[in-house]
Amino acid sequence: MKMSRRLALSSLAAAVLFAGPATAAETIRVGLPTKTFWPTTVAETAVRQKLFEKEGLKAELTIYRSGAETFEGMAAGAADIILDPPSLVSAGRKKGVMSRVVGNATMGNYGWQLMVPAKSTLTVKDLQGKKVGITAAGSGSDLLALWTIQDKKVEFNRVPVGGGGLVPNLLAGNVDAAVVYSPLSFQIAKAGEAKTILDYATAVPPNLTAGWIVLDRFAEAKPEVVQKALNALYGAVHFMRGNRDVTIKLISELYEMPAEIAALEYEQTIMKLETDGSMSAANVPAAVQLSLDMARSGGLKDLVPVEDVISTKFKPVPTKP
């Protein structure tokens, strides 16, 4: 009996000795362009449903003030994967920031609207020489402002105010109009504080407006981490589509807005996000090209070809809760 006990203890000690310390979860730093925006909802869902954990990852979410600032954060090494338009990737490569879009996130400007204060009588044509609020130069809002200038043949001044500054500056009269994203656009319209003079969801041709982006060196050094992060993020999109009430409640809590506004965001934005994410899909190159063409017509220069902007190396396999 004593011998058996000693053998058991020895075996246990050996097992502990040779097993070594438990493997720590790999950290993935997720950069988000602004707080009250659907990428935050996606990332928060992935965290709360433990989808990153199921992929063996620990997620750290950082919210920036604009898409341009988010891209700068990745370029500076402060974020591993971010959500931004492909035009930033294209322009960035010419400046030595070597990154690619690894996941198609959305093919439309859902919820994006050009808005003026409710009592304003301005139309799009009346914005000639006026001030229009955007988040930052090079951001998604800036691209839409540039598209408006080109398509509507009107010249106005683009004023960067940050994501959190769009609505306050619009309502305070510091800018005459603003390019506002959802659900903020839904919220101020419903409250009667502002009105839409151009709905970008219908006005702009379908194109790849935003995707998940990583630096080339990160994708080469840690391809399995990129794959797992994409799995978790697209797993979150699938979860949200299948769990309406939970998602509406999350949107309402995250952004401190009424459930009816959160429901609009769910129906008009969340339900229109790309669920596959693969950059290998047949329609992706043309969608990216259109996005780059819009940026170029708006005045952005030094844009590289589509094949240098995207990576077809990854195919998201949505993580299940």
TrEMBL record:
One of its GO terms (cellular component) is periplasmic space. Keywords: Signal. The keyword Signal applies. It comes from the Bacteria. Residues 1-24 form the signal peptide. Residues 48-241 form the SsuA/THI5-like domain. It is found in: Periplasm. The keyword Signal applies. Belongs to the bacterial solute-binding protein SsuA/TauA family. This is ABC transporter substrate-binding protein.
